[in-house]
Write a structure and sequence with these properties.
With 105 residues, the protein is an alpha+beta fold. 45% of the residues lie in helices and 18% in strands. The protein contains four helices and four strands. It has helices at 12-24, 43-48, 67-77, 88-104; strands spanning 3-8, 29-33, 56-59, 62-65. Strands 2-1-3-4 form a four-stranded mixed beta sheet, with helices on one face. α1 links the parallel β1 (3-8) and β2 (29-33). α1 (12-24) packs parallel to α3. The longest helix has 17 residues, at 88-104. The radius of gyration is 14 Å and the shape is globular.
């Protein structure tokens, strides 16, 4: 099961995915792409994310971008060490906090 994580230095959205990978203990290869060298616009990366944005993952041939979608995919695909509590109200508060962080960063 090969998982490659593409990120750019300083991206808070990439940090979110990286923290998820580390918290859940998911084996992965991390590939840092340079914004200065426009590596997100390379033909290789555009096959993974045609929008030329990080973070993105490639997991057993499945490409996915957008940090929240990636974190939700990882949560469902790797259920050990869950990110979200079982209580609906607490989950709702956490989702609100995620939205606020995304809007403000």
């Amino acid at each position: 099961m090969a998982l490659t994580f593409y990120y750019g230095s300083g991206s808070p959205f990439a940090w979110k995915v990286w923290l998820t990978l580390e918290h859940k203990g998911i084996a992965h290869e991390a590939k840092r792409l340079s914004f200065d060298k426009e590596e997100t616009r390379s033909p290789e990366f555009l096959k993974i994310n045609p929008r030329a944005q990080v973070p993105a993952i490639l997991h057993d041939g499945f490409a996915l971008a957008q940090s929240n979608a990636i974190c939700e995919y990882l949560e469902e695909r790797f259920p050990d060490k869950p990110l979200m509590p079982k209580d609906a109200q607490t989950r709702a508060i956490i989702r609100r906090m995620i939205g606020e962080a995304d809007d403000k960063l």
